Amino acid sequence: MTHKPGDMSCDDFQDQLADLIASGEDISNHPHLKNCPRCRALLADLQTIADAARQLIPVDPPEDDLWDRIESAIRKEENSSTKS
Amino acid sequence: MPRTTSLPRAQRSGTKQSGETVSSNEASPQHQSPAASMPVDDVLPRAQAGDHQAFAQLYALHKRRVYSLCLRMVNNVAEAEDLTQEAFLQLHRKIATFRGDSAFSTWLHRLAVNVVLMHLRKKGLQLTSLDEAMEPTPDEGPGRSFGAPDPALAGSIDRLALERAVADLPAGYRLIFVLHDIEGYEHNEIASMLECSIGNSKSQLHKARLKLRDALRTASRKDGQK
Fold first, then answer.
1. ipTM of the complex
2. Torsion angle of alpha carbons A73, B54, B191, B89, nearest 10°?
3. Tens-place pLDDT, residues B64-95
4. Is this structure's pTM higher than 0.90?
5. Which element (helix H / strand E) includes A71?
6. Which residues of A touch B71 (CB under 8 A)?
7. Which residue of A has its CA nearest to B179?
8. A-chain residues within 8 Å CB-CB of B73?
């Protein structure tokens, strides 16, 4: 990728990308992206990944008997601390 | 790029607000009668005072998210249940020390994260501190996007491919990605949870996404060759 004088390199843009994304601003009009299909594709991919993560199916809750195990362990600890 | 999310998924899906009560359906560990419900605001102080029923409701309110974090970090149901049990046992031991300096869920998740990291360390993952979990070795880092154009992800990702790629991330990256992009925590909450800077959380999330991109594109290329 060649760059006009004063234009930001891919290296510089990608160095700033974490902060640019985390700022929450719409950076699709960033000057570097107008001339750089590679960084546009990168940004689109990162957006796709973040969107896909939100769509992941939530994990089912743990089995009901897990509470029985926790409760039993708590009782055991309480009993041992009472005895000591 | 717009923010990926602004609220933890539990809040987005309607965590109870002040003044509401916890129904027997949602917040009882199991088999409790509706009469056992109590206002959410009362649950934490009562659990801190040693009320066993309140602690049970606290478990019911938070079990899914703690278990989800554990499962996504270890990818094994039995291990995730053991870790969830350990997290809530530690919560029971320490709950009286919670002073409200951060949100309770953030505090609880921090506790759960430490349980998970301890477990990973015991399994042989060379993590002597959370800082190391946050700083994968250089060869684990994502590559930059230079050179000849590669095929992009074409705007969609197979869910199972993403699940696999997340499971293969180094622990530190996986943790940040799960907390932020899947569980929906904000960077300031993650920074508090992991005792790192907000900048570090942002940077590690970005690297995690880059690494996922590398993995997904590699998987896509392999699939295309079949």
1. 0.82
2. -10
3. 999 999 999 999 999 999 999 999 999 999 99
4. no
5. helix A65-83
6. 59
7. A53
8. none
With a cut of 70, list the residues of chain B below it in pLDDT.
1-37, 40, 125-152, 154-155, 224-226
* Residue type present at position B41: D
Sequence-separated (6 or more) residues with CB below 8 Å from residue A57:
B159
CB atoms within 10 A of CB B60: 22
Inter-residue contact A35 to A13 (CB < 8 Å):
no
Q: Which of A50, A57, A71 sits opposite B209 (nearest CB)?
A: A50
Of A19, A51, A58, the CB nearest to B202: A19
Alpha carbon separation from B58 to A78, B89, B121 (Å, rounded): 18, 12, 28
A21: nearest CB among B146, B166, B206: B206
Contact A33, B200 (CB under 8 A): no
Spatial distance between the Cα atoms of B226 and B215, rounded to a whole number of angstroms = 17
Provide the token pair at A52.
Answer: 């896909």
pLDDT digit string (tens) for B187-211? 999 998 888 899 989 999 999 999 9
The radius of gyration computed from the CA coordinates of chain B, to the nearest angstrom, equals 19
Q: Residues 6 or more apart from A54 whose CB is under 8 A from it?
A: B4, B5, B181, B182, B184
- Which candidate in A66, A68, A72, A78 is best for mutational testing of the B interface (most B CBs within 10 A)? A66
How many angstroms separate the CA atoms of A43 and B204, rounded? 16
